[in-house]
Amino acid sequence: MPITSVEKDLDALTMTIVADFPVPVRRLWDAYADPRQIERFWGPPEFPATFLRHDMHVGGRSKYRMTGPDGSQHGGFWEFLAVDEGRGFEVIDGFAGPDGEPNTEMPTMRMVFAFSETEHGSRLTTTTWFGSLEQLEQLLEMGMEEGTVAAMSQIDAVLEDLASFAAGRGTEVQLIDDDRVRISRVIRGTIDQVWRAHHDPDLLRRWQLGPDGWVMPVCEVAEAVGDTYRYEWEQEGGDGSERFGFTGELLEIDPPYREVLTEAMIGMDGPSMRNEMTLTAVDGGTLMALLITYPDADTRETILATGMADGMEQSYARLEEVLGA
Predict the structure, then answer these.
(1) Which domain holds residue 138?
(2) How many independent structural domains does the chain possess?
């Protein structure tokens, strides 16, 4: 059990939790920065969390849901006010509705997470500021303290499982729900390098090729919200008869951390997919997390069955070679 103290100050309207861990600060920080890891402990054991968005930078947001034993879902969000990598971050923490947007009928809190080195590893001090005494009492009555303590009791197991999140594991696919998947890959390179590699046409043509033997004759990148992109591939030396590609619209962009695009196969009718890419600095490089929303479960399964993840892994491995050069 990592928690060493829980203190409530009714005059200052705060609750402070101190927890100590036998790992370096970098390892503890990554557990909070990586959506694959934080969702393993942010919710209590009976209410596991799923993070649908987690862009950890000033102005960024997190959206998550906790699912109860009866299948009921309870949403939450963070708004990042400050981020000092490896040292701490500050968020507005609140409740969210089914759409992930803030529930204005429920209170919000300000939380500061401070990371520091200790003789035996690292310490996390979490301080929550409440808007009023009534709000503090309301949330404590709802079980906030007990839920937080139960949730943090799971961190040790996540920290011990370093291998599951280390660089070099390749591209991983996580089913989020019926129509969404999260593709994750730690890419050896800085956030700026990985972002540029996704937006520079010359670089894209060198790595985003899937299996060997393909080239990218068309590479039109969307640069501003509302722009369209168009990517096409064909076999090298072929006559172009097997050419295929994708097009879509840029919906959101926040360089070098996050972008949201639609995606549809050229020449095919039907609804498009929604791709949300987030880049996060972690030990060993940059975590690329891509949340894909498909029109339905059948479409998701059909596309995954094509070996999409294997093709993406070949591209990302090639990207690391390009960045290394």
Answers:
(1) 3-165
(2) 2
Question: Do 154 and 187 reside in the same domain of the chain?
Answer: no
| Residue 167 in this model has a pLDDT that exceeds 80 | no
Alpha-carbon distance values, 287 to 23, 30, 87, 257, 280 (Å): 20, 10, 19, 10, 5
pLDDT category at 1 given cuts 50, 70, 90 is: low
Tell me, yes or no, whether 28 and 109 share the same domain: yes
Number of other residues whose CB lies within 10 A of the CB of residue 209: 18
| pLDDT (tens digit per residue) in 11-38 | 999 999 999 999 999 999 999 999 999 9
CATH code of residue 191: 3.30.530.20
- Tens-place pLDDT, residues 142-160: 888 888 888 888 898 999 8
